[in-house]
Every structure is written in C-alpha cells, then in structure tokens.
Amino acid sequence: MNINTILSEQKYKILAVDDNENNLKILKMILEKEGYIVDTLTDGTDALNYIKDNRPDLILLDVLMPNVDGYDVCREVKSNEITKRTPIIIISALNQLDDKLRGIELGADEFLTKPINKRELLTRVKTLLKFKHLDSQLESSRNVIMSFAFATDFKDPFRKGHSKRVGMYATECAKMLNLTRDEVIEIEFGAYLHDIGKIGVPTEILQKTDALSEAEYEIYKKHPMLGYEICAPMQAMTRSLSVILHHHEKFNGTGFPDGLAGDKIPLGAQIVAVADSYDIMTHGLLNRPAISAAETVDILKNDSGARFNPEIVNKFLNLPLQDIERLSNIKMFANM
C-alpha cells in the first residue's frame, strides 16, 4: 500500500482558525469535500486549548486575530515538544516578505496569501499530511532501532550506552559534512545498530578478558555480516545496511569483512568507524582500560590515513564531543 492510498483512506483532522467566520465556512466546505474532518475556531486562545486536548493533524492559521494572534499560536505549538511536529499553514491577507519570514522563523510549514486558491490549498495540505505520515513512520522506526541497540549493549555490561553515544557522535559528524537529511538519517540508523550482529557472537568471546585466539577472532569478525542479515528484512534499514556491514573496514584496506579501502568504503561506515573507536577508547572494554580524551585524540590523528579517513577525523575532532556525551545520557536521538 503506497502513501497516497494511505492518505486517501485515513481521516485526518484539520483545525482552521480565523476570526472571520465567512473565511472559515469556505475553508470547511473545501476541505470536507475532500474527506477531511474540519473543526473551526475564531480565537487564538481557544485554538491553543483545542490543540492541547485534541491534537489535530494539521492547523490552518489566520494571522490577524484579537488577543492571541496566529504568530503567537504558531510559536506555542512549535515550541511544545508534544505538538511541534504538527504541520501549520499560515493563511493571511498579509503578503509582505517580512510577514512570511516571521511565520517561517516561528516554525510555520507553509504561508498562503488570501484570497485562497483552492487548488494550491489542497495541494499544500496533502503534501504536509504526507510528510507528517512519513515522519511518524520514521519515529516508529527509530523506537524499534533504539530497542535493538539497547539489547546489543545489554549483552556486555561494559558497553552500556555505547550504541547511543556512537549514534549521536556519528549523526553530528554527518551533519558537519553537510550531508542531506536522508543521508544523515541513513547514517544515524546504521550507527545505532552497528554492533547488532554481536547478538549472534557467543558471550564468552565478547566478555573474554584475555586476547582472543585466532579461531575466536574469526568468529568475532562475523558480527558485521550477522548484523547485516538481522537488519536486511527491516525496510527502514535498507539504506543503512552498508554502515553495519562495513564499519570495521580500514582506510588502508586492512579491515574486515571485505578489505575495502579509501572511498570504496561507504561514507557512513567511515564515520561510524571513527565514532566507534573514540567511544571504545574513552570508555574502555573488559580487556582494555579507558584512556583520556586527549590520548584518544592523539591516536585518532596518528591513525588518520591508515585506519581512518583524515577528513572525517578532522571533522569529528571539531565536534563538542563531551557535550554530546552528556546529552546522550538524557536524549535518545539528536534533533534533525
């Protein structure tokens, strides 16, 4: 079932707010004819109370209203953690660029000028509801992925919080590289689940305090492929599989599983390799004590060009790493 079919079958609730009742009647008639459920209000204060109690799927806002105007409503909705993802279209007779910019700065998703063009209104409403649906799917996928990440870390008590930290480090590094939103999400998902394959590695190997034997190391090296196979059926992970599979490759071609080198290694995997190594060194393992952040930075710099992509190391070390780690203790995902 594609997204357009879902949109046509789902009954979306829209709130229209305007102090002119004739405008509300026109909006209600246009939207209800397309199958939307439409509630109308003439006051900004009433609108805020309604939004709090009813959580509409989309809001149409006039700007010029007494007491609480459309800008104030937009500001309140977009600054609230619960309602901030609700799409808002500001509809106003104001058509100056400054008016539009103010609405956008406050978080409005669209700005339409009166008199309303019916076709434009319906196109914008449908597009924003489509994005809202996809965004909801994305959040659901993130929750599932985070549960998997917790399960991975639970297997080794010394790894507590590792997947979350690596996910946040990698996400912020991807943003520093000016990647697209989709590319950042791809890397984010892969980073959180980079070690999911360790679920299939015997606990006695993961928690061994001595050096692994050659045979044990060969078993350990299978975890990227195991992770790939675990996540392959998940539609949300399709574009992140290369991150999971190749995060142990090295820039000089001496890594595993495929011995890829340089730009042959997927960019997301190169980013996660740096983030993973930084977190392991600063937090330690059962058989490897933690070292200071300063020592870790020196090692990453020394390994640039051999284990790691020098450009990525440079971007990574410019991140506020300690702030990100503190944030990881209270936040599941970095804001997009």
Question: How would you describe this structure in keywords?
Answer:
336 residues; alpha/beta; Hypothetical protein af1432; 2 domains; 16 helices
Describe it for me?
With 336 residues, this protein is of the alpha/beta class. It folds into 2 domains: 3-132, Rossmann fold (3-Layer(aba) Sandwich); 155-328, Hypothetical protein af1432 (Orthogonal Bundle). It has helices at 3-9, 21-33, 44-54, 70-79, 97-105, 118-154, 162-176, 181-192, 203-206, 214-220, 223-231, 241-246, 267-283, 293-302, 310-317, 321-328, and strands at 13-17, 37-41, 58-62, 88-92, 110-113. A 5-stranded parallel sheet has the order 2-1-3-4-5, with helices on both faces. Helix 7 (162-176) packs across helix 13. The longest helix is centred in the middle third of the chain and has 37 residues, at 118-154. The model is unreliable at 1-8 and 331-336 (pLDDT under 50).
* Count of alpha and pi helical runs: 16
Determine the structural class based on helices, strands and strand pairing: alpha/beta
Q: What is the end-to-end distance?
A: 27 Å
The Rg value, from CA coordinates, equals: 25 Å
Annotated CATH topology of the largest domain: Hypothetical protein af1432
- Percent helix among the residues? 40-55%
Arrangement of strands in the largest sheet: 2-1-3-4-5
Q: Which CATH class of the largest domain?
A: Mainly Alpha
> Total domains, how many?
2
SSE pattern, N- to C-terminal: HEHEHEHEHEHHHHHHHHHHH
Low-confidence stretches: 1-8, 331-336
Q: What's the CATH H-level superfamily name of the largest domain?
A: Hypothetical protein af1432
Instruction: Specify the CATH architecture of the largest domain.
Output: Orthogonal Bundle
Biggest sheet statistics: 5 strands, parallel
Shape: elongated
Strand content: 5-15%
